[in-house]
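ugh ok so i messed up the first submission bc i forgot one of the chains. this is the corrected input, ALL of the components this time, i swear. 829 residues overall. if the numbers dont match what u have on ur side tell me asap before i send this to the collaborators (the ones from the other lab, u know who)
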Amino acid sequence: MLAAIALGVTVVGIDSLRQRATLRTRPRADRAIAAALVRANPAIDVGELVTERSSAPVEAPEDSLGGVWDVLIDELDPETFTPKLADGTEVVVFRLKGGNDYAVCARPDRTVHFYLEPWEAELLPLMDGTRTSQELIVAHLEEAGDLDPGAVLSLVTSLHEGGFLDPAPVDVPALVRDRLDPASPGRKKIRGFFKTLRISWDGADGFVRACYHGALRFAFKPPVTAALAVLAVGGLAAFVATVTSDRFTFSLREAPAEAVLLLGLGFFLTFCHELGHATVLTHYDRKVISAGFFIFFGSPAFFVDSSDGLMLDRRQRMVQSFAGPFSELALAGIASLVVFFFPGAGVSAFLYRFAILNYYVILLNLIPLLELDGYWILTDLIQVRDLRPRALAFVQGDLWHKLRVRERFSAQEVGLFLYGTVGLVFTIFSFYTAFFFWQHIFGGIVSELWHGGLGSRLLLLVLALFFAGPAIRGVIALVRALAKRVRAYQERVRFRSQRAWRVEAAGMIDQLPAFEDLPEDVLSDLAGRVRLRSLPPEHAVFRQGDRADAFYVLRKGRLAVEDEHPETGDTRVLRTLEPGESFGELALLSAAPRSATIRAMTDAQVFEIDKPTFDRLLADDIEAPEFAPTMQAFAELRGLTAFRRLTLDDVAVVLEHGDWVQAAHGDILVEQGEIGDAFYAIASGQADVFVDDEPINVLGPGDHFGEIALLEHVPRTASVVARTPLRAFRLDADGFDRVVAESLRRDRPDRAPDRDMEH
Amino acid sequence: MDCWHCRRTAVGSCRFCGRGICEDHVQTQPFVLELYRTPEVVRALVVEDALFCGACTPRPDPIDLPELDE
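and heres the new structure output, hopefully the right one now
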């Protein structure tokens, strides 16, 4: 029992630690943004600008290399890539009751599926090999009103890498690795099994189709389905009656041979369970991707990869999830009816245990607290895709924060709390009952092997290692996690002993004139990260020309700022620093080498804040005259609809390459037929759009124009004239291109389905 | 030369982009040294474990360059 509880706690504990580590991760601000922001320019007159730029000759880009290099750059540029969806790619959009609509697309061979946002699904039909990614960005902009090139390019890249586009990518390094591996395919499979405790068979679809067309298709005829249901319900009633009669016992401690037979029958049942899921897939003309055998928390089991079931509609998915337990219910029903009607038969005691084993597995499968069939039925029923992950994340993270700050819980949060806590408790309980159950079934054979001599003991040990492999790995992971915790605790103790000077450091930084009213959380974070360095006289904190890697505040003593002559090496003291003064921040902000040497004149102590901490906590708050207006500009730019979803880096680029422009009534902002050199986003005022001198549209605050000429490299398709006094942000062509390029560096979302469709 | 990642002294350079790499940050990746065509199949001479910095992006799939066909 203790082992079972320990195992349960192991799994929950590891999961908890992992999730907590994830929750602790915080996004880092990029100090480069501050450097870019400082270069923002004041507004200029747009009429003059348009006249000036339209008369300028079009020149080749400065960074053009010419010849094949330009061809290569163009070929590698994802904006010019022309995606063509592979023939046979399927897309299904699912509309959920409470919103959160989503889509799933399946590769033509139906082995890979991606979750998509609905807007992404709407873009897929446009990927017909005639439009570049740039044009898709325009299409998304026109449709959704968001300039979010990164999202569109990420979608195209993910689809390409996932094999959804023609031609499919070839992974040369993977091919080379495979060819260099001398092992035969069989050996590779065996090696893979011992590594992953899992072996799969890709030909399962053919086998299931043969079974379906041979006999199992009749199970979908209403009379046969009804008969099986009667068998299942009747068998269950007979089982309950047999249990209450106390005629049979469950324990198999004295009959190890029967335990082995029961184990074999258990495998057969699991096989029928998986076949039930797979048959429904075949019935709805979906593909069984693979099937196989794996060790699931120490228990050997079969599995079917039925991810293609993600393409089924809600009702069909529920049928597919229920088919596994239903097939088991029918078989257990037959066994229970035999026991009930022929209690004196020699096989009845064995069948009774067989029925118990089945009903126990069915119960575990149908209780919606574990991610098994019952859970999938429930989530499809209530149309919530990620109930358990959300509930567990809430219980392990937000719940404690809300309790600490005594915040009210919403109805949804109460639901997540109840589901999450009951789910956790049940997970532990299920491990306990599983141990209890298997102990009664197989305790006899384990005892027999243990007392059967050295050979059988060794066999028992090997079997235990084999079946308990995942649990052993879990324990190792737990020990590692605990060791990490212990180290963190030691660190905390050490930190407490340093609390006094850390608080002093935070206070001194807060008092610095360069910073104004640092938030409390920043000060607290700083206190945790600051280091105290002691310096003997004549010792240098850093030297002129060194790379800037920290910012300092003098705590005690006096320091000299020395300038070293680059040729003679002579030094002269420029000034001295007194306690409370800071130094080193300018080199950090400008990413320049140290401009002077700082040397201790007496015994001294300095607080040191390393560059990553400075970048993250202080760079944005430093009060330098040139930063204040750009921070305001930054916020103003993010207020425009077209730029609201840009990353901080992208906004910095936009500020660097753009200006705020004012236009009076009648000013021409863009003229049809001109070469496009900028993109505009309107902050206030209105503008008329003319095509061939015919007014076709009126643009207002939040609207944008000019992107088509930039993305498609065509002349302006319309003229835009200020209807009222107008203020707009003008982003030049280079900046527009860079925003598209910069967004490529963002992390790509994980599109793999979160639903584990291996039953 | 310094390591691209940690600025310590590099012990090698990336086969794909030339960045310096120290022992702690070194990775390996197969590198196709030469390709030649036999009547049946394209064969390749490869370095199984060429040094790789992990910062550059060797594209796993070939790209079309019809301009070089001439």
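quick check: The first strand of chain B starts at residue 12 and ends at 13. that seems consistent at least. Chain B touches chain A at residues 7, 29-30, 32, 44, 46, 48, 58-65, 67-68 (CB under 8 Å).
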